Amino acid sequence: MAQPSDDDPANHFDRYTNTQLEAVCDAMSPTRYISGLTDGGWGTLGIGGKTYYYRSACYMELVRRTGRAELCAKVVERRSLLGDGSNHSPKACAEVAAAYQAREKQSAQELAAFKASVEGAFRISELQVQVLPGSHWQVEVHTEGQRSGTYQLQLVKVRDGTVLRQETLSIHRPESFSWKLSRAEVVAGSRLPDIFPMAVRMSYLVPASGSRPAAEHSTGIRNFTLSAE
Prior knowledge:
Layout: H1 18-27, E1 33-34, E2 49-50, E3 52-53, H2 54-66, E4 83-84, H3 90-118, E5 123-132, E6 136-144, E7 149-157, E8 163-171, E9 176-181, H4 183-187, E10 195-206, E11 215-227
Parallel strand pairs: 2-4
Antiparallel strand pairs: 1-3, 5-6, 6-9, 7-8, 7-10, 10-11
Helix pairs in contact: 1-2, 2-3
């Protein structure tokens, strides 16, 4: 029985991608193992410590990451009088694979449900900026979509993230919204150059449904610049 050294791959599964790890597993000796005596074998009456083959542990890690149940055929349970190897067995491996696949299925179902819940959400179809007397501006936003609900619109100074306008609105049909901006609020605290990157963000506030919590779903960002020269 050989214990892994600090630079042994058996101690560093986290260093490898899935493809690399499979090659590492394949290259491992099928007879190297950890004994139950080194993992609490004498600490509990009637129950040995954990024992397993390093190669099997490697394949188990790969199955945990990928859910590839076919790799369980390469997992061999080690049996000894003082060591319990059931945690690294084909049966245990199949349970790990099944748990992974169940999570993936649930994630796919949740993703599909979320996509359905935001389908047709209103978004920005057009943005227009008009220069007003006194170096002020009017920003007009046009929307399109079909999903009625609550939305949030923000007008932001990109350079420092300052939110100049924010509105939470109930939208049921395509509408237009406009804001007037003064030169003072756009230029405030800034130095040359007097070119200001701006953005209008629109989000759909997705209501909670069943076990799914409420969420904010971005439906688009429109960027533009203002010149204060």
